[in-house]
Design brief:
Layout lengths: L2 H11 L4 H4 L3 H11 L67 H18 L2 H6 L16 E2 L13 E2 L8 H20 L1
Antiparallel strand pairs: 1-2
Length: 190
């Protein structure tokens, strides 16, 4: 076992005094990292700055000559001159009409709100008149509101219900809320 290995083993076992390793910057650094012991500041010395003393374990052999290059250039792959950059073509400026409002969608939403409100108060039952067969509850009997979920059954009792002051249909209320919300959203967007 060499002297360095022996001293390292003593440091790891805690059998060495700080004064004994004060001159060895590697052991000082290890003592600081392992045990948190602060020993006199170590001044590490690079190999090129060390005096020509024999290194334990054999002579040092350099594989390549030292270089100051920080950029590696590989053969002829690097261009000798930067490529010519063509100027960008002029782009047309698009004018956005911010005053344009979605009138078509707003018209459809207002028409939907009006239709649902008219149905809620029984207007369609008055307009359609007698569309039911005999023995059915129909508009002539006072059920003038078309049931939205059963609108395809307007020739039977299942397709009709009482108008607004007497009864409200949940699908009617949901349709009104959704259409009014969509209409307000289109007003906000415009």
């Amino acid at each position: 076992m060499t002297d360095t290995q022996k001293r390292l083993q003593q440091l790891l076992n805690g059998e060495i005094d700080p004064e004994e390793i004060a001159h060895d910057p590697v052991l000082v650094s290890l003592a600081d990292r392992i045990y948190g012991i602060k020993i006199a500041p170590a001044n590490p010395v690079k190999a090129r700055d060390m005096p020509d003393t024999p290194i334990p374990g054999g002579p040092l052999t350099e594989v390549a000559p030292p270089t100051d290059m920080l950029i590696e250039v590989i053969g002829d792959l690097a261009p000798s001159q930067p490529a010519a950059v063509e100027p960008l073509p002029q782009l047309e400026t698009l004018e956005v009409d911010t005053a344009k409002k979605p009138r078509g969608l707003q018209f459809i939403l207002v028409a939907g709100i009006a239709a649902i409100a008219a149905n809620l108060f029984g207007l369609f039952g008055s307009l359609l008149g007698n569309v039911c067969e005999e023995g059915q509850v129909c508009p002539r009997d006072g059920s003038t509101r078309i049931m939205l979920l059963d609108a395809y059954k307007i020739d039977s009792t299942a397709g009709w219900g009482l108008p607004a002051p007497d009864a409200f249909g949940i699908p009617d209320v949901i349709a009104l809320v959704v259409l009014i919300g969509a209409f307000l959203w289109t007003l906000r967007k415009s």
